[in-house]
């Protein structure tokens, strides 16, 4: 089982520190280095790998300083290797990589960007979705089409319902408020929002979610078709 520490960075991003039984450590999506170095110092840990879901600066801007400080290796999407500096390990669909004692499965999930990936650890049933799927929303379509994003959702939804989902941002509360305008009578959504509101009052993260919970509450995953998804995406962009 991977030990995951949620590290709030920037305005509303999360980086994730993964500690493996082997003692190896991985940081997912370090959009800045400072808060991550603080946590590593507190825990008296070094850093072996930096793992990026996609090329946006709020997910990679800490790469350089962390690589220099710890001599960590950078693993990221093969398709983004031209725009993520100093990638050591290129990840692509169907490829696996061994972090500590656990193997990853890489899902290529274009839509938010063309090169973005989700990183799935089947043994621990954990997925890091970057800005592809948020709790109760998804990333904006900066580079991909609605059809591509919809296909990416299908890959994620095919994973077991009890898979824990960690995404790139704490947008959950506002996302849920939008989902309630689409499905005001969805009981699972109402229950999740009660939980989310309570967590946010205490300043706590709303993550991880699970694939099963997202299937019950996320209006984007629940759209039913790429066409309807595209409509909902436009509504959210103007929400
Ligand atoms: Zn992004
Ligand atoms: Fe982001």
Relevant terms:
alpha/beta; Metallo-beta-lactamase, Chain A; 2 domains; 8 helices; globular; binds zinc ion
What features would you describe in this structure?
With 239 residues, this protein is of the alpha/beta class. It is built from eight helices and 15 strands. Strand 2 (13-19) and strand 3 (25-28) form a beta hairpin. The longest helix is centred in the last third of the chain and has 15 residues, at 187-201. It starts with a strand and ends with a helix. It binds zinc ion and fe (iii) ion. Residues 54, 56, 112, 131, 139 line the site of zinc ion.
Helix-strand layout with pairing:
Blueprint: E1 3-9, E2 13-19, E3 25-28, H1 34-42, E4 49-51, H2 57-60, H3 63-70, E5 73-77, E6 89-91, E7 98-99, E8 102-103, E9 105-108, E10 117-121, E11 126-130, E12 133-134, E13 137-138, H4 146-157, E14 164-167, H5 172-182, H6 187-201, E15 209-210, H7 211-217, H8 226-237
Parallel strand pairs: 3-4, 4-5, 5-6, 11-14
Antiparallel strand pairs: 1-2, 2-3, 7-8, 9-10, 10-11, 12-13, 14-15
Helix pairs in contact: 4-8, 5-6
Bound molecules: zinc ion and fe (iii) ion.
Report a brief summary of the structure.
With 239 residues, the protein is of the alpha/beta class. It has 8 helices and 15 strands.
Principal-axis shape equals globular
Count of DSSP strands = 15
Q: What name does CATH use for the topology of the largest domain?
A: Metallo-beta-lactamase, Chain A
Q: Which hetero compounds are present in the coordinates?
A: zinc ion, fe (iii) ion
Secondary-structure-derived class? alpha/beta
> What percent of the residues sit in helical stretches (DSSP H or I)?
25-40%
Order of helices and strands: EEEHEHHEEEEEEEEEHEHHEHH
Treating each run of at least 4 consecutive H or I residues as one helix, how many helices?
Answer: 8
CATH level-1 class of the largest domain? Alpha Beta
